[in-house]
Please model this.
Amino acid sequence: MSKVDNWMIMNKLTLNYSKTEFMLVNNTNNQQSRSFSIQIGNYNISQVNSVKYLGVYIDHSLNWKEHISKLENKISRACALICKLRYVVDQSCLMQYYYGHIYSHLQYAILAWGGVNESSLHKLNVLHRRAVRLLSLHAWASSKLYVL
Model:
């Protein structure tokens, strides 16, 4: 780390020590058994168990539980809003909301986190099917209204 610090000084770069963190990646759940201390200059760099990088939550065991949990919260809130919006707006507006607030989150960085086992994705799949069902119920109900 001293070589990195010297290189940054020679190239007139600075490191924001308050934002700098490190994470040990391993396949065990006991992260506390391996605690390291990294120091650059006079600053201690803090160790974390997960980090948000470009909107994707990466945890120390690479099981994507935290990222999937955050997605479940976002999609659950979006489903609740679809329940309220379906009585006020038309189908095309609901579809725009779906693609903007549900589908886009599901597709973002799916190559990184999408390969987890099916049991980890079960609740996410249930929420996605719920959103699609809410959209199709709106289409069915609105078509029945126009027929009458």
In short: The first strand starts at residue 21 and ends at 22.
